[in-house]
Design goal:
Layout: H1 2-7, H2 14-46, H3 53-72, H4 82-155, H5 160-175, E1 179-185, E2 191-197, E3 207-209, H6 213-219, E4 225-227, E5 248-254, E6 274-280, H7 291-371, H8 377-408, E7 416-419, H9 420-437, E8 442-446, E9 453-456, H10 458-474, E10 481-487, E11 506-515, H11 536-539, H12 549-559, E12 563-568, E13 575-585, E14 610-614, H13 618-630, E15 634-638, H14 641-647, E16 654-658, H15 665-676, E17 685-690, H16 695-703, E18 708-711, H17 716-729
Parallel strand pairs: 8-10, 14-15, 14-16, 16-17, 17-18
Antiparallel strand pairs: 1-2, 1-6, 2-3, 4-5, 5-6, 7-9, 9-13, 10-11, 11-13, 12-13
Helix pairs in contact: 2-3, 3-4, 4-5, 4-7, 5-7, 7-8, 7-13, 8-12, 9-10, 10-12, 14-15
Membrane topology: Multi-pass membrane protein
Pfam families: ETR1_N, GAF, HATPase_c, HisKA, Response_reg
GO cellular component, one term: endoplasmic reticulum
Length: about 725
């Protein structure tokens, strides 16, 4: 065996083999050391954010030196020169220096590297948190999308029942609910009634007390609350023992706080009330309510509350609209009925006016004719009584017609320029005969600054003054009466609700009529201006009167933008009537035009004056003829317009035409007479006889070319004045 072993000798000696391994190892170490710096250089070049590039350069130098040391060490395995030993020593010294410097540098760098690692971990945590937030945002966006969808569906109608049913359906579809229900408060407010469910078309009217702890818990917060599936409000479906009930949440739905109206049969509420919405997840499932789902439920509950409030407001507005339409229809019917009644009243008054003025015309005319004859004192007294009574009745008729037109607004002021001073003197001339009989002195006081010529309605102003002065004479048995006219100043005493504002073109006339008669109780003064009303103190005086004078005067004063009132300290102390009216200031310095009435109409001679009278009423025709014949006229009478057109000739100086009948036939005769007499001096003067006192009658007469209008009834003096005016001026100034 020894021989065999000695025969096998190794190819390399043991020491040489070790040296050989070291040599190969040093070669690969050198190669590796030289390749690592190349890789580090590539890393540094490609990395744009690494903060320790100089450390890598130093570390690369260390590796290069280590590789160089191992590479030089390859020549030390054989016999080598001193130069190799010197290079080897230098390489090892440099390697030692660089390695020590690198080690010391790493002592300072490692904490920084550790902090970088910490920040990296922090950033990773932040990235994870950001991912969670992004997931939450995506969830919220999904929730918002569902909310918008639900809101659109809920608000697509304003019907309360549709809103609630749509809410349950959309929530059930969006959240995949097994059941969803809405409990509404009853009319008593003490219970909740199951009104709407998702799965049942007609839910059983099941009620629960509103004071249950679970209900108070839900009503106490605006958030969605998880409740027990076994609570009374959650028992919406039959319970099966083999299934585990799903989670249930409930949320309150605020109902509109009602103050002035009710929703359907709901009562008026004084405290805030809620409905209860219950939502149930599917049974026998591990699904739970998520936060975003609860938020969706809360938002939907608020949207349902808003939609219900809008629906309630719409329902109330619809009811208010229907009520308003009904009221408008009723008002329109009432207006039409009132207009019909006014038209009927006006037509009745017009007919009665005409029918009453015709016999009144006969009574006054014949009485005035009778007064001209030889009468005994007793007969003359009776005739005068008839004339006075007839004049009073005519005045009453005028007052009734004026009041009617004042009430329906058809009466308008006829503005014109007139002499204010003359108007007061005419009033006194009319009143004085009655005052002289009663031995009542009347004085007139006109202020120095009172304008002489003014612009206003002369006829209505005279009517007001005549009414007031006439009342003073009528209700006074002794004493005196004073009439004062002045310009109203801002500091003059007046009622608190009346303010005088004069301008450059207008002023306010104040008239004060004071008497020392029986006076009146202060508490009775407001009654004086009520139509057809008299106070007891006045009624017991046996002075007559209809109770219309002051009522009409007040309305005339109001038309003239003025005010009227009466002052009295009591019965037996007299009274003072005061009124203010607005008048225009005229620039005229003297009366324009021609006097209205001749100075002495009684002395005018009408003998031989040919007059034609056309009147369909035989009595009225006969009475008018009697008046004219008494004045010396030669009178021809006709009963129709055709006969009038045939009879009239150039010899007739005046034609009196009755135009009281409806239509325009009698007006047309005036146009045909104008056509028949082309020359003005040959055409007779045309005067309308009418019982209508309205302005339209006068305007129509003038538009058809008539020269004047004479209002029935007509006395002898009236007829004398009319003929005097016509013959002197060829126009009748006192038309109505």
């Amino acid at each position: 065996m020894m021989e065999v072993c000695n025969c096998i000798e190794p190819q390399w000696p043991a020491d040489e083999l070790l040296m050989k391994y070291q040599y190969i190892s040093d070669f690969f170490i050198a190669v590796a050391y030289f390749s690592i710096p190349l890789e580090l250089i590539y890393f540094v070049k490609k990395s744009a954010v690494f903060p320790y590039r100089w450390v890598l350069v130093q570390f690369g130098a260390f590796i290069v030196l280590c590789g160089a040391t191992h590479l030089i060490n390859l020549w030390t395995f054989t016999t080598h020169s001193r130069t190799v030993a010197l290079v080897m020593t230098t390489a090892k010294v440099l390697t030692a220096v660089v390695s020590c410097a690198t080690a010391l540098m790493l002592v300072h760098i490692i904490p920084d590297l550790l902090s970088v690692k910490t920040r990296e971990l922090f950033l990773k945590n932040k990235a994870a948190e950001l991912d969670r937030e992004m997931g939450l945002i995506r969830t919220q966006e999904e929730t918002g999308r569902h909310v918008r969808m639900l809101t659109h569906e809920i608000r697509s109608t304003l019907d309360r029942h549709t809103i609630l049913k749509t809410t349950l359906v959309e929530l059930g579809r969006t959240l995949a609910l097994e059941e969803c229900a809405l409990w509404m408060p009853t009319r008593t407010g003490l219970e909740l009634q199951l009104s709407y469910t998702l799965r049942q078309q007609h839910p059983v009217e099941y009620t629960v007390p509103i004071q249950l702890p679970v209900i108070n818990q839900v009503f106490g917060t605006s958030r969605a609350v998880k409740i027990s599936p076994n609570s009374p409000v959650a028992r919406l479906r039959p319970v099966s023992g083999k299934y585990l009930l799903g989670e249930v949440v409930a949320v309150r739905v605020p109902l509109l706080h009602l103050s002035n109206f009710q929703i359907n049969d709901w009562p008026e509420l004084s405290t805030k009330r809620y409905a209860l919405m219950v939502l149930m997840l599917p049974s026998d499932s591990a699904r739970q309510w998520h936060v975003h789902e609860l938020e969706l439920v809360e938002v939907v509950a608020d949207q349902v509350a808003v939609a219900l409030s809008h629906a309630a407001i719409l329902e109330e507005s619809m009811r208010a609209r229907d009520l308003l339409m009904e009221q408008n229809v009723a008002l329109d019917i009432a207006r039409r009925e009132a207009e019909t009644a006014i038209r009927a009243r006006n037509d009745f008054l017009a007919v009665m006016n005409h029918e009453m003025r015709t016999p009144m015309h006969a009574i006054i005319a014949l009485s005035s004719l009778l007064q001209e004859t030889e009468l005994t004192p007793e007969q003359r007294l009776m005739v005068e009584t008839v004339l006075k009574s007839s004049s009073l009745l005519a005045t009453l008729m005028n007052d009734v017609l004026d009041l009617s037109r004042l009430e329906d607004g058809s009466l308008q002021l006829e503005l014109g320029t007139f002499n204010l001073h003359t108007l007061f003197r005419e009033v006194l001339n009319l009143i004085k005969p009655i005052a002289v009989v009663k031995k009542l002195p009347i004085t007139l006081n006109l202020a120095p600054d009172l304008p002489e010529f003014v612009v206003g309605d002369e006829k209505r102003l005279m009517q007001i003054i005549l009414n007031i002065v006439g009342n003073a004479v009528k209700f006074s048995k002794q004493g005196s009466i004073s009439v004062t006219a002045l310009v109203t100043k801002s500091d003059n005493r007046a009622p608190p609700d009346f303010f005088v504002v004069p301008t450059g073109s207008h002023f306010y006339l104040r008239v004060k009529v004071k008497d020392l008669g029986a006076g009146i109780n202060p508490q009775d003064i407001p009654k004086l201006f009520t139509k057809f009303a008299q106070t007891q103190s006045l009624a017991t005086r046996s002075s007559g009167g209809s109770g219309l004078g002051l009522a009409i005067s007040k309305r005339f004063v109001n038309l003239m933008e003025g005010n009227i009132w009466i002052e009295s300290e009591g019965v037996g102390k007299g009274c003072t009537a005061i009124f203010d009216v607005k008048l225009g200031i005229s620039n005229e310095s003297k009366q324009s035009g021609i006097p209205k009435v001749p100075a002495n109409p009684q002395h005018v001679n009408f003998a031989g004056l040919k007059v034609l009278v056309m009147d369909e009423n035989g009595v009225s025709r006969m009475v008018t003829k009697g008046l004219l014949v008494h004045l010396g006229c030669e009178v021809t009478t006709v009963s129709s317009s055709e006969e009038c057109l045939r009879v009239v000739s150039h010899e007739h100086r005046v034609v009196f035409m009755d135009v009281c009948t409806p239509g325009v036939e009698n007006y047309q005769i005036a146009l045909r007479i104008h056509e028949k007499f082309t020359k003005r001096h040959q055409r007779p003067l045309l005067v309308a006889l009418t019982g209508n006192t309205d302005k339209s009658t006068k305007e129509r007469c003038m538009s058809f070319g008539l020269d004047g209008v004479l209002l029935k009834p007509v006395s002898l003096d009236n007829m004398r004045n009319v003929l005097s005016d016509l013959l002197e001026h060829r126009v009748l100034y006192e038309a109505m």
